[in-house]
């Protein structure tokens, strides 16, 4: 079934070209079913790229989904037009009286800062507190996952000696969970971060369950035992070329950076990388949306 989007959203045509089932809001209004309401808190700098990545995944499930985009009112993004934000994004005051079946909290390029020094951290704290009573389940990615672990479970991030960038092998620790239904015992996933979270701290927190980890990249998937929080420290949603784009951006800035691990064929940045994690990305998002959102959320929020 389709993902329901505003008719004018630019990324719709790209999604249709990829054979993603997209339904514009005019057509969706004629259907007499209860769609899921999903809030995407998009903190990434290139918002339209992240929209494309996430909507592709939500649109490949058998569930009709209404999407609302949220931005931080206290921060003005530099890589997206004001007209795009004004037309397609809400701020917290616009949605605080609504309820959502699911919420996605993206990564953000602020991970080397203490949480309290991030300009919009008070908004994140307010949002997470509000979500306790207004959202059935939240999927958090990279910095978003670290923010949830810190605010909700008291686990701080830790600096890495060098950036973790590349595609790494992961091992399932809890293959019985619905979140990873259909996963291989070992699978690949990309990471791009300067910080990590402690394996020992996750195991000591009784409210959390470790789902998957990597010998090289560390803790990857965690879920709260009440299923209200799913946290992914990497970026399964990334396109095949996203790590390449980040690497070339950093090189152009003159930053000291290593070639992403296990990513370019023959570790040669002149060669075109391939997406080796796509199938597990779709499984993660469809499992979350089905088992942790659709199967758990009330039909009538009132």
Describe this structure in words.
This is Homoserine O-acetyltransferase. Keywords: Acyltransferase, Amino-acid biosynthesis, Cytoplasm, Methionine biosynthesis, Transferase. One of its GO terms (cellular component) is cytoplasm. Its EC number is 2.3.1.31. The chain is of the alpha/beta class and 302 residues long. It has a domain of 187 residues: Class I glutamine amidotransferase (GATase) domain (Rossmann fold). Helices cover 31% and strands 25% of the residues. It has ten helices and twelve strands. The two termini are 25 Å apart.
Summarize the structure.
The chain has 302 residues and is α/β, with parallel strands linked by helices. The protein contains ten helices and twelve strands.
What is the approximate shape? Answer: globular
Sequence stretches where pLDDT stays below 50 over 5 or more residues: none
- Measured by DSSP, the beta-strand proportion falls in 25-35%
| CATH class (first level) name of one domain | Alpha Beta
CATH H-level superfamily title of one domain: Class I glutamine amidotransferase (GATase) domain
Tally of helical runs: 10
End-to-end separation: 25 Å
- Radius of gyration of CA atoms, rounded to a whole number: 18 Å
Please tally the β strands and state the result. 12
The SS-based structural class is alpha/beta
Major β-sheet annotation: 12 strands, mixed
CATH topology of one domain: Rossmann fold
CATH architecture of one domain: 3-Layer(aba) Sandwich
**Order of helices and strands, N to C?**
EHEHEHEHEHEHEHEEHEEEHH
Provide mean pLDDT, rounded: 93
> What share of the residues lie within helices?
25-40%
């Amino acid at each position: 079934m389709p993902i329901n989007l505003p008719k004018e959203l630019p990324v719709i045509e790209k999604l249709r070209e990829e054979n993603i089932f997209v339904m514009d809001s005019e057509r969706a209004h004629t259907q007499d079913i209860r769609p899921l309401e999903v809030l995407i808190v998009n903190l990434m700098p290139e918002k339209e790229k992240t929209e494309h990545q996430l909507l592709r995944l939500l649109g490949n499930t058998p569930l009709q989904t209404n999407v609302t985009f949220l931005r931080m009112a206290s921060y003005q993004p530099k890589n997206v037009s004001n007209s795009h934000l004004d037309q397609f994004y809400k701020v917290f005051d616009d949605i605080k009286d609504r309820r959502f079946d699911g919420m996605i909290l993206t990564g953000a390029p602020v991970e080397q800062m203490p949480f309290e020094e991030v300009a919009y951290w008070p908004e994140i704290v307010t949002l997470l507190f509000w979500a306790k009573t207004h959202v059935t389940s939240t999927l958090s990615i990279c910095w978003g996952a670290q923010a949830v672990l810190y605010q909700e479970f008291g686990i701080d991030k830790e600096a890495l000696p060098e950036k973790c960038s590349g595609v790494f092998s992961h091992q399932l620790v809890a293959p019985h969970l619905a979140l990873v239904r259909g996963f291989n015992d070992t699978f690949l996933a990309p990471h791009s971060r300067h910080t990590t979270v402690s394996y020992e701290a996750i195991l000591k927190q009784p409210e959390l369950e470790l789902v998957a980890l990597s010998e090289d990249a560390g803790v990857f998937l965690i879920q709260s035992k009440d299923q209200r929080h799913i946290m992914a420290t990497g970026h399964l949603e990334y396109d095949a070329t996203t790590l390449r784009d980040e690497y070339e951006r950093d090189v152009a800035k003159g930053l000291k950076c290593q070639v992403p691990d296990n990513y370019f064929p023959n570790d040669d940045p002149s060669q075109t990388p391939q997406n080796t994690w796509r199938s597990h990305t779709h499984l993660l998002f469809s499992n979350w949306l089905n088992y942790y959102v659709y199967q758990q959320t009330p039909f009538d929020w009132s």
